[in-house]
Amino acid sequence: MIVKINLLPWRDELKIQEENKVKRVLALSCLFGAILAGILVFLVQEELDTRQLRLNIINAEFTQLGNVEAQMNERKSQTERLKQQLGVLQKLSAQRSEVVSLMEKFSSVTPQDAFIISLAFTLDNISFNALAKDRDVLAVHLDSLDNYIGPAPIPPHLEVLMDGNRVVSYSVEVKTEQNKGAK
Q1: Alpha carbons 126 and 129: distance in angstroms, whole number
Q2: Which of 81, 146, 137 is nearest to 113 (CA)?
Q3: What transmembrane ranges does the database entry give (predicted)?
Q4: Is 68 exposed, middle or buried (0-12, 13-18, 19+ CB in 10 A)?
């Protein structure tokens, strides 16, 4: 057996110290790397959370914008319906004044001794049944209709006896002339 004698014991101690130093540096490097990795994971997760929050806010804004757009479209269609209704009302209002004017003319040309029994009218046509005291009243009535409302052809008429009085019964259809004024 051979006995080994270490002539330089300080080299062994130096070697053990260097190994310990390398082990400490390695442990510190691993610890530092783990801390860096943890911080990096934390920052990446924060960035992802921030982006998800922004995405949620943007989606909420898009949803709200879609709701506002739907409301605007609904209001636009409601406005169109109201415009159409207003147009109808304006047309009816204009026709009302024409009808009132036509009926005022018609009542002003009816002689005192003529009595309207039935009346049907549109803006273009008036038809009625009437009784007159005599043929002269019928002639005056037809002449007034011709002058103020529109052409009134001489209608067939009958002389009838009512309550002991002779009266003339007649039916007339007059085509109205919208722009015919009083003479």
Answers
A1: 10
A2: 137
A3: 25-44
A4: exposed
pLDDT single digits (tens) 52-85: 999 999 999 999 999 999 999 999 999 999 999 9
- How do strand 165-175 and strand 125-132 relate by DSSP bridges? antiparallel
Q: List, for residues 96-108, the tens digit of each pLDDT value.
A: 878 888 888 888 8
Which tokens sit at 48? Answer: 């992802």
C-alpha 78: how far from chain center? 2
pLDDT tens digits, residue range 7-43? 677 778 888 999 999 999 999 999 999 999 999 999 9
Q: In angstroms, rounded to a whole number, what is the distance separating the alpha carbons of residues 121 and 10?
A: 135
Contact 141, 132 (CB under 8 A): yes
- Which residue, chain included where needed, has tokens 């109205």? 176
What is the bridge-based pairing of β-strands 165-175 and 157-162?
antiparallel
- pTM score of the predicted model: 0.48
Helix axes 135-148, 9-109, angle to 10 degrees: 140
What are the start-end ranges of the E strands in the chain? 114-121, 125-132, 157-162, 165-175
H or E stretch at 53:
helix 9-109
Cβ atoms of 125 and 173 closer than 8 Å = yes
Instruction: Assess contact for 172 and 152: CB atoms under 8 A.
Output: yes
Cα separations in angstroms, 23 against 14, 26, 40: 14, 5, 25
